[in-house]
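User: Structure with KG4, tokens only please.
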Amino acid sequence: MKTVLAIETSCDETAAAVVRSRTVLSNVVASQIDIHRRYGGVVPEVASRAHVENLGAVTETALENAGLGWSEIDGIASTCAPGLVGALMVGVTAGKTLAMLHSKPFLGIHHLEGHIYASYLSQPELHPPYLCLLVSGGHTSLIHVQDCGQYEMLGKTRDDAAGEAFDKVARLLDLGYPGGPVIDKLAAQGNPTAFKLPEGNISLPGGGIHPYDSSFSGLKTAVLRLVQSLQAEGVDPLPVTDLCASFQKTVAKGLTKRAIRCALDHGLTKIAIGGGVAANSGLRQHLAAAAEENNLQVLFPPLKYCTDNAAMIGCAAADHLERGHQSDFALGTRSRMDLADVMTLYGR
Ligand code: KG4
Ligand code: ZN
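Assistant:
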């Protein structure tokens, strides 16, 4: 069993954690949401600066809360891709420096592999193969998890990610940033059948729809057109709760339909969900009900492990380290990287 100190700085959360195999010994997250809220979204340069300011204290607290000394840490891990490059560089440089200073192996971790490993933190008995539905601010993916480092991407978004759609719709309804939590809250008070919106299917050239891929930019435009036509009719105030409920139901239905189809087609009986949008109550309800109807098991990590955190990065790193994987100190950061290429991070 390996114990890892992990750092996550790919976007707007400065996070550090200590994880022993699948057990979280500490998990510290300093959110930058309040800083970025005033700009209506994440400003990369501002995020990098805040990581530089916060990471020292966050890492120190993680180690302190775990009650461990350096001698009990087997390796240091940092998220190295994909994400905001400047933000990733802060975490990777800090991780490498600590690894060099304390003569520990260093591991660069793929952010999405981290989101996949979030499921093990609350379900330590979970083992591949299974389907992971990863829905975050940057990704909407259906991943066949075959083993540690072995992933097949079966479905993706062709444009906006699901979380991005929540954020953009919230912005056009003037609800602030981030959009997911506020839409989720308002949707609970609205009528989900008030408005009919497109589910974000991808049409295939020969007819029919792609079973697993989605497109959310059309849905966002449909909400915009709907708002414009309500305003043109003089509807005031706008039926914001009904708009939120209808939008949320449409996203939840589309994602659920594709995830269930994908699991059934590939003979996978378990669906683990990850990423910030996994916190969405509409998605949780739809997916849980559809999974039960189809005799599938669906696993939802607790909310604190759905959104960005370093515990999930540490869990992935501990598994890699147990298998003898480690990264070269020359490892760089990348804004984009396919999950299929995860094993290229471990050259030694
Ligand atoms: O995984 P995450 O913390 O960061 C990324 O890696 O992107 O996900 C953030 C995204 C944001 O777009 C946010 O609006 C969305 O997750 N989100 C939600 C909810 N909570 C967070 N979306 C829908 N419903 C929620 N309850
Ligand atoms: Zn994330």
